[in-house]
Amino acid sequence: MNTLHTVRLTVNGTAAEVMVEARKTLADALREDLGLTGTHLGCEHGVCGACTVLFDGNPVRSCLLFAVQAAGHEVGTIEGLARGDELHPVQRAFSEFHGLQCGFCTPGMILATVDLLEHTPQPSEDEIKEALGGNICRCTGYQKIIESVQGAAAAMASGLAK
Amino acid sequence: MSANEGWIGRRVQRREDLPLIQGKGRFAADLTMPDMVHMAVLRSPHAHARLLGVDTSKARELPGVFDVLTSADLDGIGEFPVLWQLPGQKASGIPVLARDKVRYVGEPVAAVVAVSRYVAEDALELIEADYDPLPTVVDVESALKAGAPVINEAWGDNVAIRHIVPGIDATGKAGDIDGAFAAADAVVKARFKINRFSGVPLETRGLVASHDPLTHGLTLWSSSQVAHKQRTQLASVLGVPESSIRVMTPNLGGGFGVKWDCYPEDALVCLFSQRLQRPVKWIEDRREHLMGTVHAREQVQELEAAVARDGTILGIRGKIWADLGAHIHSVGIGPAWVTGVSLTGQYRIKNYYCEVIGVATNKVPSSTFRGFGGPEATFATERLIEKAARAVGLDPAEVRRKNFIQPDEFPWFSAGGGVFDSGNYPAALEKALEEVDYDHLREEQAGLRAKGVYRGIGIGCYIHTSGFGPSFILGLVGYNTSGYEGSSIKVDPQGGITIYTGMIPLGQGTETTLAQVAADQFGVDFNDVRVVWGDTSQTPYTGFGSAGSRSNVAAAAILKAAEVVRDKSIRIGAHLLEAAPEDVVYENGGVQVKGSPEKRLTLGDVAKAAYLAHNLPKGELPTLEGTYVYDPAMFTIAFGCHVAVVDVDLETGEVKIVRYVVVDDSGTIINPLLVEGQIQGGVAMGLGGALLEEFVYDENGQLLTTSFMDYLLPSIHEVPHMELHQQVTVSPHTPGGFKGMGEAGMFSPGAALANAVSDALLPFGVEVDRMPITSNLVWSLLPKS
Amino acid sequence: MKPPSFAYEAPEALDDALALLDRHGDDAKVLAGGQSLVPLLNFRLARPARLIDINGVPGLASISERDGTISIGAMTRQRTIETSPLVASRAPLLAAATRWIGHPPIRTRGTIGGSLAHNDPSGEYPAVLLALDAQVRIRSQRGERVLGIDAFLGEWLSTALGPDELVIAVEIPIGSKHATYGFAEVAKRHGDFALAGVAARFTLDGSHIGDARIVAFGGVARATRLTAAEDAIRGRVPNETLFGEANRAATAAIDPISDLHATGEYRRHLTGVLVVRALRQAFGEA
Q1: A96 and B23 in contact by Cβ < 8 A?
Q2: Which residue in A119, A112, A108 sits closest to A149, CA to CA?
Q3: Which of C3, C259, C273 sits opposite B652 (nearest CB)?
């Protein structure tokens, strides 16, 4: 039963290969086999959103996918967002507007925001809430997260941030 | 920005953020070590049962399993102590693994270590534990009934303590509670039910223990809020010298109090690591967290207030039953005691009497959580005030005005025995009422009702006893811990400043905040101050470390330690400048002779000389560092006022928050950006408890809320926009005038919401006296027609 | 919270998937979107010996219109349905209800076939598809069959699906142009399973209500047609008095359970209120 599967996938634009049991979640494979511990596990049953990654460009719960399912797919994690030392505007905005405290929900929050702004560059407050409704933050009370998303949208629109 | 402008008070962006926004934070779950193995814990499925035996043989045979422990293997291993031992409180402890009996669903029964967490969980399924179920008690009412099953047999019954708080004045003389009630024009009575909920940080608890062959000691990476305290307790449980243990804390994904306590797993990972001579990791999963990490808050309160016709509250008396869970945890009865001494709130209520009864039930033990008994009191007091106002036909705001302790009455000695340092309670209320436009809201309320809009306005004033507290007072109430924080400051030979704090950051921005404080003390750039935390081998002992409300105490320790270092700089600098020390001052990052700015040395110059020690004043020791341990002189009392405006849907009972105004006064503000974050986060957590969160048990003691689909945290949809206003009344006791503020937001949401919903439904006589205020609850309170 | 071991198959053709189901159906589970199944695995509440992952099976994820029917492949993601112009114009009730399912990352993975096969009694899709009188296309090595949704849905997470069978598509009749709908639910938080919900579709016959399909979900054993409420309004002119009758008929007919989230009594009351709200959505505040 505990057969190992060889899984070839693309992570943050780079080819990767892991040998995993079928039952290993994508989140665990990213964290343990690829050392990408920025993907956090807050509930392991798909409610909290801390483990959100981009799967073929769309936000998904990596605790609800098995690593074997990622074969041939592209996975984007928080570690792949900055270009070298150049932070993504969403990352910058979360710091500038104090959209994080403990930082545990932050990678999922940021990736969900990146996806939102890609499709909706100037989101309304309701659209922000809809996009981030599945990401629980226990520290901030969300107000500064909303401000961070709005700040990032403004920065990206004004082209201040390339 | 020039350093001269001062760093305290500035909206400095946090230095903590850079790794966290890139996924480069290092949380306990992220730690890995060579040869590391993984622990999983078998937990009781029964609320109350004799544990007849545990057969681990099949689990041991599973490939990949290294070791299994049951209580039979724990000879010589102690129990974690109950730290708060009020006089008269029955003896209790926190066992590492259940022996003979289990007392709540989730209690650890056995533990396994295996090559991966997956295999460790496979092994748990192979352990055969034999239980003989016993009758259970799941609430205080049934626990107190004659003939109720006794959970802790040595106690004789389920009562941990009956503690009486007699109302006293400043001289310790008792008030006249019976007289107050005899003289009352009206008496309002209520039975309040505070729900069982807790901090539930997004990061669960996590540990990595590793036996160090070089030192024969043990290193524990721990998501603890209080590393030094954890080390002290671990040493006593494991029976090893405290010096042989080093506790380190990585990034913490929130704590909110629940990571203050010590838990069985803390000892288990250490034991396994000693036995196996390998690093052992345990990461609590969410199900375990909900059934294995302390719960909090649950109380039944029967209270009454004596009211005069003019709105004066003449007295409050009553009883509080605290649902402690299966045994007394680290601070077990403490939060209920805090409730019991706090029910007079910020009001000049001189006649008071409260009885606090701690009761055991077959549930997860109850202990520390942001607010620590205070929000429970705030709910009751603010509901009583509201009821009192209705009883004598006055506006609730008016009754608060009538009873507030006035700004010129400090220090105030509360009837519960507290000493309040400073405050301006009327100003906070007036500001909140002005911002929300209270008079206008009242005017439009009747018109809206005629249109079928049931709008309610609810006030929740709060005081928050922060900087807990002077050590000698903790001693007086049997709290076997201390209130001080230590800080060391080292200036290195290049003049670089490093501060060492025993405080454990939980995500609030402690590092940024403390660096701001130190930067001002040395007149240097904030970025030139390093902060070292989270390592018992480097940082000064911290007595308390509940970081949420402790920035004041830690900041004060830094102020004082900086003074030590500055004084030494002046002595050495004066010697080098050939001036008398009294003619030399510390200014702008260096020392100079008064009136002769050209006669000046930078801190770096002084540090270099201090370390070379070629030419020091007579009797001066080399190097440049200072330590100070600050034990607070007195509690600091932060305060404020929330106003909630809600619309209640009569058809569904749903409550929509239309506006939420917060006025907070936490003394001197170090970083407004971070204070806003703390207050907003606290309000959101308070709203969670007010509207959604509750640990629910069935009649057999089965915990029903074992997932995030059942234990409901507020999402971005449920938390309204908060209109936050800050006022500043400094504390006369703390150097710097700081007060704590990390918990403050938590106090009032329950009261404000309950008052607002009751206000909206006033035409129906609905009184919301419990939480969470679900749509089902509201609907059930409405008359059926 | 790590899943137990299982064997994993990822067929790349429908026939292969069906062959695997034929061989292992009794102790296998089909892995579609996984948004309900994987939490159950992580909690070790489900322990299939084998997972048959059909995400790599081509041809199951299209939305098309033919002969007055919208056909939606079983592996069509909820997100795709939510944003499909065809669904919006031909089955707007389905589009509206989809937005109530979980949150965007859930809908990115969750599939319509998976939702149906899981048949959570608090789920939106079984109820909406019942209101829309959908047909479920099912295939196995034994052949293909089409079941009416009502016959497909069983009680408490059960369905008429045999262990060797796979839902391959859902077919929704477009029906009359003169149709209108209502969808309303109350959940504790946005995105949670409904405490109670109502999905309803109506046709108009001049100023009268023609056909009515009103479905309650949440706290009941399965998505349930409120036939008494339907009968009360069929052929009548929509107005508040009539809506009140529908409310009373609905609450009299339904008997939801109590659990930690809500009492049965409250759910029953809510169902009546939501019937009225769905009617108002459909016909305006008449």
Answers
A1: no
A2: A112
A3: C273
The alpha-carbon gap from B27 to the nearest alpha carbon of chain C, in Å, equals 19
Could you tell me the fold of the domain covering B31-134+203-253+259-292? Answer: Aldehyde Oxidoreductase; domain 3 (3.90.1170)
Q: Do the Cβ atoms of C193 and B696 come within 8 Å?
A: no
The verdict on pTM exceeding 0.80 is yes
Give contacts of B681 with chain A, Cβ < 8 Å: 101, 138-141
The whole-number average pLDDT for the span B441-453 is 96
Helix axis angle for A125-132 and A106-119, nearest 10°, is 130
- Cβ atoms B293, B107 nearer than 8 A: no
What one-character DSSP code corresponds to residue C100?
A: T
Do the domain assignments include residue A162? no
Length of chain A: 162
Nearest CA in chain A to C56: A69
User: pLDDT tens digits, residue range A112-162?
Assistant: 999 999 999 999 999 999 999 999 999 999 999 999 999 999 999 997 544
Q: Is there a shared CATH topology between the B3-22+484-630 domain and the B299-470+633-781 domain?
A: yes
What ipTM score was computed for the predicted complex, to two decimals?
0.97
Would you list which residues of chain C are within 8 Å, Cβ to Cβ, of chain B?
1-5, 39, 43-44, 186, 188-193, 195, 259-263, 266, 269-270, 273
Got the DSSP string for C16-43? HHHHHHHHHGGGEEEESS-TTHHHHHHT
Q: Are strands B351-360 and B313-325 parallel, antiparallel or unpaired?
A: parallel
Residue type, B348: R
Class of domain B299-470+633-781: alpha beta
CB burial readout B664-674, b (16+ within 10 A) else e: bbbbbbbbebb
Q: Which helix H or strand E contains C139, and what residues bound it?
A: strand C135-140
Q: Which of B508, B716, B717 is opposite residue A101, by nearest beta carbon?
A: B508
Q: Are B652 and C186 in contact (CB < 8 Å)? A: yes
| Structure confidence at residue B37 as a pLDDT band (50, 70, 90) | very high
Binary contact (B717, C190; C-beta < 8 A): yes
